Amino acid sequence: MSLIRLTRCLLPMLAACALLVIPAGAQAQITDLNTAINKAGRERMLSQRMAKAYLQIGLQVDVPRSRRVLEQSMALFDRQLVELKNFAPTGEIRDTCLQLEARWLAYKDALIGKPPSREGAATVLRLSDDVLALADQATRLLEKHAGSTAGHLVNLSGRQRMLSQRMAKLYHAQSWQVAEPDLAGKLNTARKEFTAALRELNAASSNTDNLRRELQLVEQQWLFFRDALDQREESTAKRSLNVATTSERILESMEVVVGLYESL
To answer: Do 69 and 110 form a contact (C-beta atoms < 8 A)?
Structure first.
């Protein structure tokens, strides 16, 4: 069976189970640098995931589920930001968290202030990238402060979560014809970055047998996700639903991988 046919057979099942994945560790307070790197990295992911959900609502893609994803992602972002501010081990990291908080307030208002629209989507895209940049800065500062191989791998694998959601976000923005420059180029860049980072993760000398198995599952999910991004034969609505679903599944797989690196 071809990959395309296999994907089409599996997508209905994936759609039925693709819900927001909140690992147990996301509910606990931050107690060490690896956890802080993970949660700051998850804020990066959520910045893109919320924009993805906003666009899905605008495109009428599985609206009830997309609304739950948006609401739960916003709540998780809020909770983790408080934890990161409280944990911040340096003044520079705390200042970055405070800047992130200020930008988050503007982003939150754009997400829920009005019903989704193409005009609103342009603002959401811009603010999602502003929040992404500050969350990425906080994550990098935490990795630098940790100064460990494990910290680097938590950051790198955590960034894969963000890229999965960013690719879906950019795909939906193209589908909705949002006025944003070079969406195709940005999507292509994200794909290349994901592939390169996955190669680096697979080559990590500290990988355990469990990590190698989970990374193989990510490779499989990446094939399904790429197939969804490249599909041409289905209707626009079906293509958007496939991207929404497969982006959730690869996110779920990457959450497992990040958690394993966090525990090294």
So the answer is: no
